[in-house]
Amino acid sequence: DEQTSNTYDVRLKLTKELLIIQKQDVVCVSGGDLNVSTESLPSIRSQFRHDSAANVSCAHHCESQSAAEECVLFVTDYRTRSIRQVNGINVEKCTHDEVVHLLRTAGDEVTITVRYLREAPAFLKLPLGSPGPSSDQSSRASSPLFDSGLHLNGNSSNTAPSSPSSPSANEPKYEKRWLDAVSLPLFMARISRCKAGTDKLRSNSFEVIALDGVCTHVLQFCTAAESTDWLQAISTNINDLTQESMGFFCWMFSPQIVHMGWVCEHLQGGDVEPLHSCRFLALRGSSLLVFRSPPVTSDWAQAEASFHLCEVLFKVHKLWIAEDCWIQTKFYLGLQQDGELRDSEPFCFSVLVGHGQSFCYSVELGSELVLWEKAFQRAVFMEVQRVRSKSYMCSSQGKILCFTLDFESGFSCSDSISKKTIWKYKFSQLKGSSDDGKTRVKLLFQNSENKQIEMKELEFANLTAVLHCIHSFIAAKVATVDPVFVNSQSLTQKYMCSS
């Protein structure tokens, strides 16, 4: 728990749909009434007002016991005291004697606000008067404080303790067991390795946040290898559930969803420290959709941003490798001019859209980066195949023209009024281009007859969108001629495999 800095051992259990966190606790395995605490706890808890932290921690008890015997509250030093208020009076900084005096003079009815001792040692949860370890044993195994756990009745194993030589017939027996504490649904869940409010990565740890906001707190592992194994396993199950939901959405609603999932958006605030925010991306039909929360029903229109896939460019920043520790790999694709990437960044990619806008996202695993790269390539290819042609208004030498990209014929430019074609070239005839980064672009084509280079200078209102669209059509055209091209261009996947 990062807020309280409390740490405790847990055991994880992963199923297809759930991540279960188990905590060790003391349970009665034989003797006595095993169900009595379930019947009596509600009546005890109803006598107290609880704060927002948690409920009152009550010990197991018998119905014949009084309320004073049943509920264990610690009135100790103010830093560890469980009682916070008595009849509305804050006693957190009062002395022990002051709190005792206030309790004794509070009257017949007392309203007590308590602090839940979340991780009190297990032996404190034993019923009052329960049999402890044998008095003739003085070894460490006979002490309930041994290794911060519980070795009851002189038994140091997790099995039921052995009976004394002359046991009582109804003497209860206790043992430590792993009990389910949190069951977190993995459907549309997300994983985060970043420290709260920063872009810095946690070391060998992460947290899982469910769709409803419930989280595991930070799960700290002994080695990077263990952390990576669990990260990959949980991420795989989340992705599998997402794929199943995509199939359902495609069946219920159209158009087709190519890929969707959680990403972390990195925000630059000038001189301010970079911030990050979680976003849910979906490649659906002709659009890249950006959500603050997953569209679990039919609320696809609630996207905070939408971009046409033909006018979107996907770029990978760099890769990391997970070995015995996280190793940053200086692997750039020549896509960042300044190359100023922070050492703490995970697997990052940029989405470049119209008017020069750029969004930087990151995922937790290299396998996720591969999925997003291939998904973008597939989604763009499918969209180009669907639209077949795309036209933009432009100007050249004072004339208003219509610039057209056609999947079959290539480039063409026509008069916006008469629709008469002025010039036309195939995709293979484009030999180069240059632009001013604002509105003007020069396209260099090779004449098929005399092999001379011919330059066409055009001006567009949204030059970035046009250049991205040209890239999408050429990539789709090459992929049609050479199906292996798409996989060969996946440098992320190729590098990860070679590593």
TrEMBL record:
GO cellular component, one term: dystrophin-associated glycoprotein complex
Key words, A-Z: Cytoplasm
Region described as Disordered: 153-172
Main location: cytoplasm
Superkingdom: Eukaryota
InterPro entries with a match to the protein in the record: PDZ_sf, Syntrophin, Syntrophin_4th
TM segment ranges: none
Entry keyword Cytoplasm: yes
Biased composition (Low complexity): 155-170
Keyword Cytoplasm: yes
Syntrophin C-terminal PH domain ranges (all copies): 388-480
Subcellular location: Cytoplasm
Signal peptide start-end: none
Gene3D superfamilies per the UniProt record, alphabetical: 2.30.42.10
Database matches in Pfam families: Syntrophin_4th
GO MF annotation list: structural molecule activity
Protein's UniProt name: Syntrophin, gamma 2
Species name: Sinocyclocheilus rhinocerous
Organism placement in taxonomy: Eukaryota, Metazoa, Chordata, Craniata, Vertebrata
